[in-house]
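Example for reference:
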Amino acid sequence: MEGWKVAMSAVLLCTVPSFALSAQDYRAQALRILKTVPLIDGHNDIPDAIRERGGLDSVDFAVLQPKLMTDILKLRAGAVGGQFWAAYVPVTTMDSGPHPAVYALEQIDLIKRLCARYPRDLAMAYSAADVERNFTAGKISCLIGIEGGHAIENSLGTLRMFAALGVRYITLTHWRSLSWATASTDTARRGLSAFGREVVHEMNRLGVLVDLSHVNDGTMSDALHTAHAPVMFSHSSARALTHHARDVPDSILRLVPANGGIVMVNFNPGFVSEGVRVYEDSLEGRARALRASGTDSTALRDSLKAWHVRAPKARLQQVADHIDYLRRVVGVDHVGLGSDFDGITEVPVGLEDVSKFPDLIAELLKRGWTEQDVRKVAGTNVLRVLRDAERVAAAGNAKARRTDAQR
């Protein structure tokens, strides 16, 4: 009898098909899903990368650009459906050179001209409906986010004009604090000033998303308690996994669901790998010690290069760990992707450029994520955030018009 059972078990094992999927199967599934939902990345710095290379006439975005993480061929390979292009404004403009507002206008101009130059593949988007319309037409949506609140030069009028030009989010600070908002690099515990709260309210009224990447915890908290519309973290990860000030602590993450906002995971190795972060911090200390000892610049450069070669590498799976963690803490409705491609100098293994997004989606599927949840992280969450911000703006403006009519 026992021999019969063993024989039957062997037959069943041979005849029942295996449901284990290969990496290629998960990637194929990811690509199929991304044909049904626009994958929207919260932050890409290609405008500044193009500017640094001499402008649009110096970079043919329609052909492969080996030294860049982004071009149209890679975007198509990565099934990208929408991209927030960062109109990055260096904090040095606060001291010299073009005024911050002028620099921001030039970046906005570059983004619009980039989009117009390749109409077969790219189309401007100013609303969630625009993104969906472009996706249906087979085009990649170009959305604009200003990186650095110093661009408004303490002027709500300038903020309003940026909104009129189609800016859909503004990162309140970059790495330097402002008089009205505090950066993550600042040890001060202050958050938003009274004017900072005015900025948040005006952004809500205009339908411009408040981006809290780069700000300190106090500013994050103040903005979340001030805002009437969803906020976003356009390119930040979870501090519980990687103890970097640019990442978001659990105390702040727990405030996000009630606000309706979104945390879009950054791919910067030092933000997603604790090992990389610790190693990078140690490099700064070593460099300071060498300088203090009088080491000449050539020896210092050679030493740093050797240390970088030995540095640990972040991996795609660690980015997926942050996405998993955020799903547990804030819920799947509040998680997105914010790569920071072409604004970072190092990348996780497996996420070398924008063509690799399907591999990240495949990793989530491999971990048991449902297709519905994958669609949310890929794009429907940020579309919902855009719609909610548009609705808050429309309701506030309608109320203002009624008030004016009653006067």
Summary: The chain is about 50% helix and 10% strand. The mean pLDDT is 92.
